[in-house]
Structure formats: C-alpha cells, structure tokens
Amino acid sequence: MGFSFLPVMEYLSRRAFHAAGLCPHTVTLPCDPGEGSGTQTIHYWAPAPAGEPRLPPLLLIHGFGPMATWQWRRQVGAFSRRFHVVVPDLLCFGVSAPCPSSPAPSESAQAAALAALLDALPGLPATARVAVAGTSYGGFVAYSLARAAGPARVGPVVISNSDLLKTAEDDRAFLQRAGGEWASAADLLMPLDARTARRLMELSFYRRQVTSMLPDFLIREAVQRLFSDKREEKIELMKAITVGTDEFQLTPLEQDVLLVWGDHDQIFPLDKAFAVKRCLGENVRLEIFKETGHVPQMEDPNRFNEVVLDFLLASQKSPNQHDQ
C-alpha cells in the first residue's frame, strides 16, 4: 500500500480536538416544518456532557473546505481554555445530513439547523448567549444565525473572509483570477485533479503550502477522497446560497461584530471587506491580516487567536442592553 498524507492530516486534526477536551457527538433532530418531514442529523465536536457548561459557549462554523477539524485545528486549544467550544459539521458535510425531503439548505436553513443544535446541547441553558465565529461560507451562516436568533441568543459575532455582498459578477471575476479555465466555482472549489487542487491552494493561501509540493498522485488521491463525498449535494448547496441574490438583503447586526480579512485574499478580495463593514452597522471592527490569504486562522493562527479572544472577552465585559 502506498503512502498517503491524508490519514496523517486527519490524525493531527483529531488529536488537536481531543487535546482541547472535545469529543465527537451526533444528534438527530426533527426537521423544521418549513424544510420537510423526518429528521436531520448533525455531527459536532464539544466537551463531553457533564452538566451545565462552566464556560461561555462559542460556536465555530467552518467554510466550504473538506472538514471542520482542518479549518479550526489551530484554534480549538486556545479557545477551549476560555470558552465551551462547539464545532459542528454543517449540513451536507461529514455525517451531518439534512431532512431527506428538503431542498438543498440555504445559509439561513443551515443557521436554523445550528439553532436547533444549540437548543439540544446537553446542559446548555436556553437563555445562554452564544458567541459565534464563521469563516468564508461559515461567515454567511454565522451572519444568518445572528440575525435570525437576535442578540438575546447570539452574542458577539466573528466573520472571517466572508463576502456578504457577493454577486454573480464577483463569481465571474473570481473565475477570471483563477485563470479563466473553469466553467463554474464548483469546478474549482471542489477539485478532483491535482492541477485544480494546486490552483485552489494558490488562491486560498498567501504562503506556499507544503502539501502543494507533493507529487501529483498523492494530491489526486487526497482530493478524490475529500471532494467526491456528497459532491452533488455540495454543488446544489452552492446553488442554494442566497447571498448575491434578490432574496438576500444585508442589514446591520445589533451584536458586536469582528470582521477579519486577509490582505491577499484572492477568493474574496480585500476591497470587499470595507464594503461589508459599511453595511454591517456601527458595532463593527475590521482587522486586516497582512501576508495572509483566504484562511488567516490557518496561515496566522497565533495572531488570529489573540485578536478573536481579545474581541470576545472584551465583548463579554462591556455593558450590553440585551443582558438587562
């Protein structure tokens, strides 16, 4: 049997989660009446149930990458020392599955599923305010959750490299930046060959990644394992995104918001960060990470953790009319 780096990466990711005191859980929940009949399944990582959490809850929402454990591997250790961290797999990722009869979930449907998960978490009071952080597509979901649940349920919000003003023209510009060889964003964001995977890494990261220097056969084996799973469902998931359509309107949030952006992001360019900030309201702080791309939590994890923790802890201490 030949060598594969994928099991090594999976092992390192899971080890980081276990070291942070997080364990895998799966919960089956009834479908929202508006989404269909039957049940939906959500897989998530959280501390083992042991009564009411001693620390304030923090929900980490992944983007469109292959798995949540990769995207938040460098955060869970630092965050778990100050928060009761919960890291779910969004619907259509991992073993999380939507209702069988429902259409592909939009980001608002994803947010509704996460709200149901919060209500079902063992020991978490229904009155607990939950801090939320989302990266890329996860930022779309974090915004939808914060707006729908309101400040009484969702507290401070971290949105990282998420273009909440994305349009079809932005999608076309992204494909042009990629080289104009791919017909759709799905072809590029869910690669099945080594060349496309290398191009996606170049677009996602500012610094060259060690994995991009691996032989083609290793990269090809990895991406086929990672991106073949639920491929059709994820393509439909992309089509279900309402950001950039008439169905979606970006309105200010009442919560404190930290907007994080890499200055070399080629998926959602930096100029969009300023436009998003203007639309999100007065309670928004923008932090620009130098020499990073689309995933600053992976490229500059130490600074990311410091900035996010400072923001979340300061938001907890500041007076808030919603707590009265």
From TrEMBL:
Pfam families: Abhydrolase_6 (PF12697). SUPFAM superfamilies: alpha/beta-Hydrolases. Residues 58-306 form the AB hydrolase-1 domain. InterPro entries: AB_hydrolase_1, AB_hydrolase_fold, Meta-cleavage_hydrolase. This is AB hydrolase-1 domain-containing protein. It comes from Triticum aestivum (Wheat).
